[in-house]
Amino acid sequence: MNILVIGGGGREHAIAWKLASLQDVSMVYVAPGNGGTQLENKCKNVDIAADDLIKLAKFAKSENIALTVVGPEVPLSLGIVDFFEANGLKTFGPCQMAAQLEASKSFAKDIMASSNIPTAGYKYFEKADAAIDYLKTKTMPIVVKADGLAAGKGVTIAGTLQEAIDAVNDVLVKHIFGQCALKVLIEDFLEGEEVSYLVMTDGDTIIPLAPAQDHKAAYDGDKGPNTGGMGAYSPASIFTDEEYAKLSELVIRPVLSELKKRDITYKGILYAGLMVLNGTGDKLSRVRVLEYNSRFGDPETQVILPRLTSDLARHMMAVVDGKLAEETLTWDNNSVATVVMASGGYPAEYETGLPITGLDGVGANFDIKTNFGVKVFHSGTKFVDSQLLTAGGRVLTVTGMGRDLHEALKNAYATVEQIHFDGALYRSDIGHRAL
Ligand code: AMP
Ligand code: GLY
């Protein structure tokens, strides 16, 4: 069968790589893909933007695509799944209404309130004056969130009242996110440890993916600005297996049920960003949901999918057909860790078009026999003639596999040190909490 993967980041490279490794899969098209998917066995880049739904659907029909997998949130929020299905195309991902769980923080909070999901206290504002009056009654730090998709830049953790006011004005007065965010949510600041919890669901059956942890802060020691993620590892969980299994009843099942009441069936990956509050005693009672994402995480996917030993295409097809109950996901026991190499300056301004060297013969794949070694998933890269260039904030996700986390990290970092582009930024302490 032919598969179409939509997106062009490290997550999509990992999804395409995994699908291409399956015997039943003849070709994986990636739109628009990147320098890494261009080199991948059985993969072909298609020069169509991830939000050009009409061209994508035409392409999928003309190439007899049996399954389309949507990576990023933007096409999901534009309703790509509804549009493709209306055109008779099987598509893995939530419909537009369900994708609002990520695209609209107010929708997500409303669903959480209706289904008694533990989350941070919050209030919404459309007018800056009212928001600022409210801020003056609160203690700092406080969290100001733009209500809409803001490419990971919509959240400010304000340490002072002035910072919080500036964040409110950025959204409601300066409209820095344009029409995408016309409301702000002001949320109580929670202190604890962040955990990603990803499940696959067809709206009824919920299957948790292997546990993974990412590192959101830009610099070592979890310092610096928030990013999309600077590294990740799996397995990793601050929960016991028993707690991990119970999480879906706590933070996923009630959401699916509440959506069902509104005639919305959630299909695809549902990703809950959790904070486990500092404290002692029952961990599950200290879980708060920070957000829902309607897709795989990036870079979590780059450490989760290498460990999957069952058939991803079949699982995804089962989700689309509402038959996930018939599936079993299996995982190998190895550890996988990924280190993001980003452009200097990321997550703020950065330069692109810089040559990347040191990748020849490096990180083409894990060793199939021993399952160890390194695989470099590309995030923001592209070829111009035959030279690989940087083309985004996150450039490469250098992914090591080993018998334990220590070995996985050693493999990843040994390769990071061989790769070069000017200004490359990476964290040297991925996995520190688990080690
Ligand atoms: P969100 O997109 O809502 O997950 O926010 C992005 C990041 O901001 C999260 O991954 C957290 O690191 C941080 N964050 C969001 N909400 C809070 C909160 N209420 N308290 C503390 N940190 C938060
Ligand atoms: N790694 C965080 C995310 O994918 O949203």
- The global form is globular
- The tally of strands reads 23
Low-confidence stretches: none
- Radius of gyration, in Å, reads 21 Å
Mean pLDDT: 94
Helix/sheet category: alpha+beta
Helix content: 25-40%
- Give the termini separation: 42 Å
Largest sheet: 6 strands, antiparallel
Strand content: 25-35%
Q: Could you give the order of strands across the largest sheet?
A: 12-15-18-23-20-19
Distinct small molecules bound, one entry per kind: adenosine monophosphate, glycine
Number of helical elements = 13
Descriptive notes:
The structure is a single chain. The chain has helices spanning 10-20, 35-39, 53-62, 73-77, 80-86, 96-103, 105-114, 128-136, 161-172, 241-261, 300-304, 312-320, 405-416, and strands spanning 2-7, 27-32, 43-45, 65-70, 91-92, 122-125, 142-146, 155-158, 184-188, 192-201, 206-208, 213-214, 217-219, 223-226, 231-234, 268-277, 287-293, 335-342, 364-366, 373-378, 381-384, 387-390, 394-402. With 435 residues, the chain is α+β, with helices and mostly antiparallel strands. The strands form six sheets. The chain has a six-stranded antiparallel β-sheet. Strand 21 (381-384) and strand 22 form a beta hairpin. Helix 6 (96-103) packs across helix 7 (105-114) and helix 8 runs antiparallel to helix 9 (161-172). Adenosine monophosphate binds next to strand 7, strand 8, strand 9 and strand 17.
